[in-house]
Specification:
111 residues
Length: 111
């Protein structure tokens, strides 16, 4: 069954060092939330991801210039290979299980 699922990432809060390598507000840890929605059914996952502050060869981006797309790139590129696809698959399965529950928990008929 192919589902039309919309995925939405959120990144909040961002943890940062007050100063590092001569820069200020250097993000090193991102709290993320991933939401999946089909309109009637929802699933979500949460976590944290360490991102390398001032990685060699990278350009420092001031905290107030960060965008959701920039942080998305940091988070997804820092995750283990295949992690993002696995999360999408897990959320899709959660929604499928809501639509067609594999297990029913029912009250005894005599109660």
């Amino acid at each position: 069954m192919a589902l039309d699922i919309t995925y939405n990432w959120n990144f909040n809060p961002l943890e940062s060092y007050p100063t590092a390598s001569g820069e200020t507000d250097v993000v090193f840890l991102v709290h993320w939330q991933l939401y999946a929605n089909t309109g009637s059914y929802n699933a979500s996952a949460i976590g944290t991801q360490t991102v390398g502050p001032l990685e060699s060869g990278s350009t420092f981006i001031p905290f107030n210039e960060l965008t959701k797309d920039i942080v998305y790139g940091w988070v997804t590129s820092s995750m283990a290979s295949g992690s993002v696809d696995s999360m999408y698959a897990s959320l899709e399965q959660q929604i499928k299980n809501q639509i067609n529950p594999p297990i029913l928990i029912q009250q005894a008929p005599w109660l």
